[in-house]
């Protein structure tokens, strides 16, 4: 029997370019506190959020993904035709099928490349990096466009006090390319299906189909305190596993970029990890809100823009959210 | 070794002090975490996790909402130590 031909084994991957799209409209706390009988102070104290950016009706998720993706490709010094695959992490593309990623191949003019969406909520971007890393290292593709894109304002309830008031819209993107040196360490990722309902939709699309008169438009809810406990103490262990998998210590990091869920989660995670003061921490949430799968690449893009010395340094990134699902890896910043 | 009720109260007061800055003397058994001590749900969860570590007990998420007063928490921890 002939030996099967496979791509060149044992090569590495790295993030070669990054881009982001932020909606222009910054929504202040004062604009949303009425229906939840709250205050600017209450939101700041519990979440650290001052504004969240939300897209208007004329900007769709695919538009934001296109902007972020185009910027990442250009930042990597590549053309759309150089891209071998597109992964879009999202839970807010309004069509279960076909995928946002497939539509984006047409928008960007990449040609007929593999393209698919990832449903892993706020861990979606890290899931995408894990997949792209595997695809590039296996030699399946040379350049993979990974995008986190969300229009969460489509699934909020203005009267909900559990999560809606923290959510924003946006897209962040990177290109994962082949490399002679390791640029993405082994991912630590997983799920906790027993907590499937900890962050959930109020109802399904089938409820909407079967009771159009009474079923509400599905919106997001969470059990905040339970999420907080899991996001801090369980995720601190996952973050440490990612450091161990990379063979580095917290003191080797230039940056820590956790999912921008809540400033208090970010602060407590940093405390649990005993990060030295030299490590820059992504705190994009204060101005940009929680953008789910887009939050890590957006926070990374901002850190690099505001701290150019971080280029080429090590960053620990960790995403966690509805599923429950999580993903973490150490990467070399582009 | 199991902690006495007085030790649990004193240890809990230290944990509350560390999380909120409240004086340990203010953490009296009859006080409500929410209404009297102004502790929000996120700080409460931090206090719970630190109490678990300090006293070697497990306090599941579903039980945390039943810990309304400081005495509720003390009783829960004392009982959980014996379990």
From TrEMBL, chain A:
Organism name: Brevibacterium rongguiense
SUPFAM superfamilies: Thiolase-like
Protein name: Beta-ketoacyl-ACP synthase III
Enzyme type, top EC level: transferase
InterPro entries the record matches: ACP_syn_III_C, ACP_syn_III_N, FabH, Thiolase-like
Annotated pathway: Lipid metabolism
Keywords linked to the UniProt accession: Acyltransferase, Cytoplasm, Fatty acid biosynthesis, Fatty acid metabolism, Lipid biosynthesis, Lipid metabolism, Transferase
Enzyme Commission number, as recorded: 2.3.1.180
Similarity comment text for this entry: Belongs to the thiolase-like superfamily. FabH family.
Domain (Beta-ketoacyl-[acyl-carrier-protein] synthase III N-terminal): residue spans on this chain: 117-193
Automatic annotation (TrEMBL), chain B:
Any one GO biological process: lipid A biosynthetic process
UniProt xrefs under Pfam families: PP-binding
SUPFAM superfamilies (alphabetical): ACP-like
Domain Carrier: 3-81
GO molecular function: acyl binding; acyl carrier activity
Compartmental location: Cytoplasm
Keywords, in A-Z order: Cytoplasm, Fatty acid biosynthesis, Fatty acid metabolism, Lipid biosynthesis, Lipid metabolism, Phosphopantetheine, Phosphoprotein
Pathway membership: Lipid metabolism; fatty acid biosynthesis
Membership in a protein family: Belongs to the acyl carrier protein (ACP) family.
HAMAP family: Acyl_carrier
Function: Carrier of the growing fatty acid chain in fatty acid biosynthesis.
UniProt protein name: Acyl carrier protein
Source species of the chain: Brevibacterium rongguiense
Lineage, broadest ranks: Bacteria, Bacillati, Actinomycetota, Actinomycetes, Micrococcales
Gene: acpP
